[in-house]
Structure formats: structure tokens, C-alpha cells
């Protein structure tokens, strides 16, 4: 009888071991699996999940080379669209830090800054309320090109920025901001950047209405501070985007700045055409 019990226990142990090995192999074979699951997670709103078709989060993060053991900085997460995926993905083995918009201490005058501050406050409250899902997310404020509190150099394996560079450029500090991000990334680390892409007329000219940036211009700005372009991807390209809209990129979803005017047309176009760029800080960078 004892021998039978021992054989049963050994069989169960073997089955569990094989199952765990298979799961590990499956995860390693397709590292996008976990990212894809999180992109469809029930903790995400239906509105956020609906945007997966335009933002391709699993493919985008896989392209940037994210790993669950990494220390990652997400810059200006807004409503936390990507934070909802990044935080649970990194919480067990890695670490996510988000650089939020500056808070409103009652002195903000700019309406857009007030709106951004509200977004940051709402995201912080949500992270605190759903800590089991998000895990421990470090938070700082970012008023480009300065972080508060200041962050140590060379501490992140990856820095991610989604649709922020046009704002930095509008304010005249794209170069200074890229330099600040470069300083934070460890040598060999990655800057993953997604941005609205202007219409290119030739190798040297482009047309950029509000919110769009020329891809060559962004690459040159990053290379000027020391980054090296590893690869560019068309994951987030949208050939339907004519890039000549009355209110620029904000004419399209999700903003739909013209309200009901030509709403069906702009919804049919979808979200903007976007460049997806992967840079590294050279291993000898400092």
C-alpha cells in the first residue's frame, strides 16, 4: 500500500513538473503571450481595450524588447493606458516607475496643465486602490526636462514614451528632454518611442500639422544626444491617415476635436499614423 501511495505522489509531482516546464517553455517561445493577456485584462475598461487595434501594445512592447525583470520608466502615462499593462507585467520581478504630469497646487493657470494634473491624480488614486493588480509603482513628477524628485543616472533598463515628443517639441525642449532621458538609461538600455508621424514629401522635407512630427527629425534629435537607432517598426502605421486634418492629429480618435462634424469619416480613418522607434544608449555611453 505504501509503495502505491509513493508511486501516486511521484506521478503527481512529475505531472506538475512537466506542466510547469511546458508553461515556462510556452512563455519563452512567445513572450508576447503575457502582454497580450494583460492587454485584454478585465481590469482594463472597454474603451481602453477597444484601442488595442490602433496601439498594438503587445507587439509594440515586444518590439522594444521588454522583459519582466526590467526596471522601466514610463513618461507621462496620462490615463494609464500602458501602465495597466506594464505594472502587472513587471510587478513580480521588475519595477515600473511612472513620471507623472506636475500636480496642481492651486497655482496652475494653464487649462491644459490643470487637465493633465487631474489625470495624474486620478491615476495615482487608481494605483493605490488596485494595488493587488498594479503592484508597487514608483511615481515622480516630470516637468520637462526636470524630474521631482531627481532620479539617479543610469538606473533604468528601458524608458518608454508614447505620443509625448510633439508636446516637448512645441515647448522648445525636445533636445533637453531627450538628454534627460538619455542620462537615466543604463548603458545598453533602450528608449522606446511612439509618436504621431508627419507626411513625408521627400528625404529632406515633410508637412507637419498640429501634433505630428517628422520621423527623420525625431531620429536626428535622439542621435544628437547620444542615442543610436536600433530599428524602426511599422506596427503602429496607419495608411488611412492623410495628416491634413483641420485640428491636426486631435481631429482623429480618441480626441475627435471636431465633435460630430465628419465624425464617421474620422472614426473610419482611426487613430493617427505613428512612428515606432527603438533606440539604445551605447554600452560605453555615460
Mean of pLDDT = 89
Strand content: 15-25%
Principal-axis shape: globular
Tell me the count of domains: 1
CATH homology superfamily name: Vaccinia Virus protein VP39
Question: What is the H-and-E element order?
Answer: HHHHHEHEHHEEEHHEEEHEHE
Instruction: Give, in spatial order, the strands making up the sheet with the most strands.
Output: 4-3-2-1-5-6-10-9
CATH architecture: 3-Layer(aba) Sandwich
Q: If helices are DSSP runs of H or I spanning 4 or more residues, what is the number of helices?
A: 12
Low-confidence stretches: 8-27
Please report the first level of CATH classification, the CATH class: Alpha Beta
Total strands: 10
Please state the structural category: alpha/beta
- How would a crystallographer describe the biggest sheet? 8 strands, mixed
Alpha carbon gyration radius: 21 Å
Proportion of helical residues: 40-55%
CATH topology: Rossmann fold
Amino acid at each position: 500500500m505504501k509503495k502505491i501511495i509513493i508511486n501516486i505522489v511521484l506521478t503527481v509531482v512529475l505531472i506538475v513538473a512537466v506542466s510547469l516546464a511546458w508553461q515556462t517553455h510556452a512563455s519563452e517561445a512567445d513572450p508576447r503571450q503575457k502582454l497580450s493577456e494583460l492587454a485584454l485584462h478585465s481590469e482594463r475598461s472597454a474603451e481602453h481595450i477597444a484601442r488595442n487595434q490602433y496601439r498594438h501594445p503587445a507587439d509594440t512592447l515586444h518590439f522594444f524588447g521588454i522583459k519582466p525583470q526590467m526596471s522601466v520608466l514610463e513618461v507621462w502615462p496620462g490615463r494609464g493606458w500602458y501602465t495597466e499593462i506594464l505594472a502587472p507585467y513587471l510587478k513580480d520581478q521588475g519595477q515600473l516607475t511612472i513620471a507623472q504630469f506636475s500636480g496642481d497646487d492651486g497655482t496652475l493657470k494653464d487649462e491644459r496643465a490643470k487637465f493633465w494634473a487631474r489625470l495624474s491624480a486620478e491615476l495615482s488614486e487608481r494605483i493605490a486602490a488596485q494595488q493587488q493588480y498594479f503592484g508597487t509603482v514608483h511615481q515622480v513628477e516630470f516637468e520637462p526636462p526636470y524630474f521631482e524628485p531627481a532620479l539617479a543616472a543610469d538606473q533604468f533598463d528601458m524608458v518608454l514614451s508614447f505620443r509625448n515628443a510633439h508636446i516637448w517639441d512645441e515647448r522648445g525642449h525636445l533636445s533637453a528632454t531627450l538628454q534627460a532621458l538619455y542620462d537615466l538609461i543604463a548603458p545598453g538600455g533602450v528608449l522606446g518611442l511612439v509618436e504621431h508621424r508627419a507626411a513625408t514629401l521627400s528625404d529632406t522635407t515633410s508637412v507637419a500639422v498640429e501634433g505630428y512630427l517628422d520621423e527623420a527629425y525625431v531620429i536626428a534629435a535622439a542621435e544628437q544626444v547620444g542615442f543610436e537607432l536600433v530599428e524602426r517598426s511599422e506596427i503602429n502605421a496607419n495608411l488611412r491617415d492623410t495628416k491634413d486634418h483641420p485640428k491636426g492629429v486631435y481631429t482623429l480618435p480618441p480626441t475627435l476635436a471636431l465633435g460630430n462634424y465628419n465624425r464617421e469619416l474620422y472614426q473610419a480613418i482611426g487613430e493617427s499614423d505613428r512612428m515606432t522607434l527603438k533606440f539604445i544608449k551605447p554600452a560605453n555611453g555615460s
